[in-house]
């Protein structure tokens, strides 16, 4: 029996009669980097919004560590360890890199913030912040104003602020979107690195990234689950190839992305 951290059962979301997510059964194994792929409009982001409770499902169930979280609120989900990057953890451009991570840590502390203050342990907060920066290879940028960071480094900072919230499951929606070759490489390696001891579910269009680091891939098409398996399996699936043919020629071929 696989150790499933996240599972959806018949997950469905309708918008005024239009079914954006249709009867989706998704199973994410603990410790995996799991990719959610599919042509534009397939329902990937809607799926993410359901998982993080930004949207309420029309029907179906979401289980996290075997527990039904379908009716939980966004804050409850986050407290349980499901953290979505590049959304909750928006960074403040006028603050330094270190200040941004500290804010992330304080947010994570929540009500226990007073404990830190009374202990006078702001320096240990700094220590933890520096350790997180080190983890994403940003130590040398600690005092840089965030707005001055190169694009790929900003994404690394966003990952650090997500890590500050101690995620058990990280959700990344197109983490390499809009990046040049070098940044894609850097952020991909970073995702692989921070996946140690965690689980990652990511939407990704770049098939080099998917084939390079993802253990398992689910393919959505028009809201429904079309295929699931390893990259080798789904990339050979005739239905998947056909689904992609209409959008970008050879998009499923790593090396073309
Ligand atoms: N709030 C909404 N109201 C109505 N329709 C919506 C809403 N949100 C999404 N949709 C529709 O649901 C479908 C799925 O959209 P979604 O954004 O989930 O796709 P996606 O797979 O993330 O696409 P992309 O690759 O372009 O990011 C689309 O047809 C979209 O127009
Ligand atoms: Mg999307």
Question: Tags for this entry?
Answer:
ABC transporter ATP-binding protein, 10 helices, ATP-binding, 2 domains, alpha/beta, six-stranded mixed β-sheet, four-stranded antiparallel β-sheet, 257 residues, binds magnesium ion
Notes on the structure:
It is built from ten helices and ten strands. The chain has two domains: 1-88 and 168-257, 3-Layer(aba) Sandwich (Rossmann fold); 90-164, no CATH class. The chain has helices at residues 44-51, 74-80, 97-109, 113-119, 122-135, 151-163, 181-194, 207-213, 231-236, 238-245; strands at residues 4-15, 18-29, 33-37, 59-64, 67-68, 82-84, 169-173, 199-203, 216-221, 224-229. The protein is globular. Strands 6-7-8-3-9-10 form a six-stranded mixed sheet, sandwiched between helices. Helix 3 (97-109) crosses helix 5, helix 3 (97-109) runs parallel beside helix 6 and helix 6 (151-163) runs parallel beside helix 7 (181-194). The model is unreliable at 247-251 (pLDDT under 50). By secondary structure, it is of the alpha/beta class. The protein binds adenosine-5'-triphosphate and magnesium ion (MG). Adenosine-5'-triphosphate (ATP) binds next to strand 2 and helix 1. Keywords: ATP-binding, Cell membrane, Membrane, Nucleotide-binding, Transport.
